Amino acid sequence: MVRQMFPAGYERAPLPPAQPEGERTAKVADRSPKPPTRTSGSEQGRGRDPFFDNAKYLTIVLVGLGHAWLPLRSDSRAAEALYYALYTFHMPAFIIISGYLSRSFEARPGQVKRLITGIAIPYLVFEIAFTFFIRAVENPDREFTLLNPGYALWFLVALFIWRLTAPVWNALRWPLPIALAIAAAATTCPGIGNDLNLQRVLQFLPFFVLGMRLRPEHFEMLRRRELKVAAVPIMAAALAFAYWAVPRMNKDWFLRDNAAQDLGVPWWVGVVMTLALFGCALLLTACFFAWVPTHRTWFTTLGAGTICAYLLHVYPIQLSRIYDWYAMPWVDSPTGRIIITVITAVMMTALCTPPVRRAFRWVMEPKLDWAFRRDPVDQARARARG
């Protein structure tokens, strides 16, 4: 009866020959788990790819330069062209890296803890601090709200939302086209409003999803010498096009915080601009990544402090606006613009240094172990490290 349950032609495979007791014991011993081997700190450090730390540092410097150049645009078409070119790719590059580093997010307890302590808590603290700062130096009646992120703090809100949705993008078959469709649809919906800066969250979403889909071999392709050389004329052409576009294009397209109708154009223009800016951003971001050093440099360690620079540079930038530092006579000249650029680069570098990170670790990396359950995966990894 049992044989009738199997298809015709089925025959039970013969049992393997018996093995001597000694051989069986040896094979079982080979399959037993081996004790973890300890690695030195330098060996563990070599597992971290310096390319991404270099890229993070360079992009955060560009973020600071973009904010510092903003008041210089009205006096110089060349400065405006640099602003256009920079805003085409500097935030997309930063977001692509963030997406790439979020590929393994699965909402495990340890990952959720780091999401809350590393993004949500700093946002709450710095949003409150920024509100009191603006009340003290400019507007005593500034409204207190956590739904309208202050200057530059929108990125923490966006990163929190994007990373929470990472398991969804990992599960989809065509995540990037879907993300592009969402971004394009957002440009046609002026009713989305400013709560949590959702326009930017949705319009920048494709870059985060793209970063999640990238693999190490994609970045390896950009390290080829011919691509480094090709990036030079591409960047030069982008600057020339930006110079031509200055009097013809609204800079607010680069900020991605408005719908097309808010910019005075039909809804379908938003769809076209979404795809066009995405393509331009990819091209210039690839050029930028091609130039990022792949070896350890003097600024590699500074890549770990980019969140400090991002959150802290807001205050001197705002002070420069409030007290009109740009009105000083020496600023309105090519030499003055160069000096502003150097000062900003030095400031962003200083804010990435380990002493600044240590000083603000209590708020940017709070432990709060008492508020969270322990993650079994993290505990197992800690035991494996010895």
Q: Which value, in Å, is the CA radius of gyration?
A: 26 Å
Helix fraction, binned, reads: 55-70%
Q: What is the helix tally?
A: 19
Distance N terminus to C terminus?
56 Å
Count of distinct strands: 0
Globally, the shape reads globular
Summing up helix and strand content along with how strands pair, one would put the structural category as mainly alpha
SSE ordering: HHHHHHHHHHHHHHHHHHH
Low-confidence stretches: 1-17, 20-46
Q: How does the major sheet shape up? A: none
Count of distinct structural domains: 1
Mean pLDDT rating: 86
**Fraction in beta strands:** under 5%
Concise structural overview:
The chain has 386 residues and is mostly helical. It has one domain (49-381).
General description of the model:
The chain is an all-alpha fold. It has one domain. Helices cover 63% and strands 0% of the residues. It is built from 19 helices and no strands. Helix 8 runs antiparallel to helix 10, helix 8 (175-186) packs across helix 14 (267-291) and helix 15 (306-312) crosses helix 17. Mean pLDDT is 86; it is low at 1-17 and 20-46.
List keywords for this structure.
about 375 residues; mainly alpha; 19 helices; acyltransferase activity, transferring groups other than amino-acyl groups
Write the layout of secondary structure elements.
Layout: H1 21-31, H2 41-46, H3 50-69, H4 77-100, H5 109-137, H6 154-164, H7 166-171, H8 175-186, H9 198-203, H10 205-213, H11 216-221, H12 225-245, H13 252-255, H14 267-291, H15 306-312, H16 314-322, H17 334-351, H18 354-364, H19 376-384
Helix pairs in contact: 3-4, 3-17, 4-10, 4-12, 4-14, 5-6, 8-10, 8-14, 12-14, 15-17
Organism: Streptomyces alkaliterrae
Region (Disordered): 1-48
Transmembrane segments: 84-103, 115-134, 146-162, 174-193, 227-246, 266-291, 298-318, 338-356
